[in-house]
Amino acid sequence: MADTISLSLEIRDVTGKTVKNLRKSGLVPAVIHDHGNDSIVVHGEYLPMVKTYRQAGKHHPVSLTAGGKTYTALIKQADFDPRKNQLTHVVFNAVKANQKVDAEVPVHIKYAEGNEASPAERAGLIVLHNTESVEVSAFPKDLPDALEFDGEKLVEVGDHATVADLIVPKGVEIKTDPAQQIASVFEPSALAAANDAAAGEAEAGDEASVDSEHESGAIEGTQKDELNPGGRKEKEDKEQGHAPEKH
Predict the structure, then answer these.
(1) Domain boundaries of the chain, sorted by first residue
(2) Which is nearest to 186 in space by CA: 104, 108, 124, 125?
(3) Which CATH class is domain 101-197?
(4) CA distance to 56, 82, 102, per residue, from 63 (Å)
C-alpha cells in the first residue's frame, strides 16, 4: 500500500438543500459513518477532496481529521454532478485497524519487462478489459492499491484472463467470482462488426463488448441518505417490502 493519504475536514451544521451554498463557496459536503455511532456531517475544500478521491479511490484508507478527532476511513461513495462532472458529496466509512474490511480494488494488466503491451496487442489484436475492479477483504494496512494479472498469457484470439489469474498478495482475500473474465482477446474486424450490429452499444458476451474505461459522471447516491449507513439501497429495499441486506 502506498503512503498515507490525509485529509482535514470541518464539522458542519448545514444540512438538507442549503448545502448548495457550501458548494458555491468551494466546499464539498461529506459524512463519516463511524462503527454504528452517530454519523458525523462534515465538509472539506473542493480541490483537496477531489485529490483525495483520485488518490484513494474506494480501496485506500484515508486518515481523516474532523472536530479534533482522527479517523481511518474508506470512501464508500462519491457523488458527481452529471452535467459538470464535479464532486458534490462524499461518504466515508470509518474502519478499525484490527478488523478486515471489504473494498473495491482496481485491476491492471502486468506487462513483461521492456514491453508496454501484451503479445496479442503487439500482434495487432484487441484486448478488451471486461472488469475494472474486484472486491477484496483485508485488514486496512494490507489493502493493495491495485491487483495485476500477467498480460503475457494474452496471445491469440480467444485467450482471456479471469479473476483467478490475479496475483494476490498475502493477507488479501478476493470475494469476486474467480471465473469472472477480466480481459479477452478479439480480432479488430470482429470487434467492429459486432459493435456496429449493436448500434455501437455492444455488451459483454457479444464477442466484442466495449466496456467504458472511464468513470461515469452519473450520481451514485443522494445526500438525503447521508445519515443512513445503509444508503439508498436500504431505503429502496424498505419501500419494496424487502428486508435490507446485512453486512
Answers:
(1) 5-95, 101-197
(2) 125
(3) mainly beta
(4) 11, 28, 17
Length of the chain: 247
Give the whole-angstrom CA distance, residue 125 versus residue 112.
17
Cα 39 from Cα 32, distance rounded (Å) = 6
Architecture (CATH level 2) of domain 5-95: Beta Barrel (2.40)
Amino acid residing at 150:
D
- Determine the Cα–Cα distance for residues 193 and 81; give it in Å rounded to an integer: 34
CA distance 175 to 138: 10
Q: What is the 3-state secondary structure (H, E, C) of the chain?
A: CCCCEEEEEEECCCCHHHHHHHHHCCEEEEEEECCCCCCEEEEEEHHHHHHHHHHHCCCCCEEEEECCEEEEEEEEEEEECCCCCCEEEEEEEECCCCCCEEEEEEEEEECCCCCCCCHHHHCCCEEEECCCEEEEEECHHHCCCCEEEEHHHCCCCCCEEEHHHCECCCCCEECCCCCCEEEEEECHHHHHHHHHHCCCCCCCCCCCCCCCCCCCCCCCCCHHHCCCCCHHHHHHHHHCCCCCCCC
The whole-model pTM stands at 0.69
Q: Return phi, psi of residue 43, to 5°.
A: -150, 160
Residues of the chain with pLDDT under 70: 1-2, 190-247
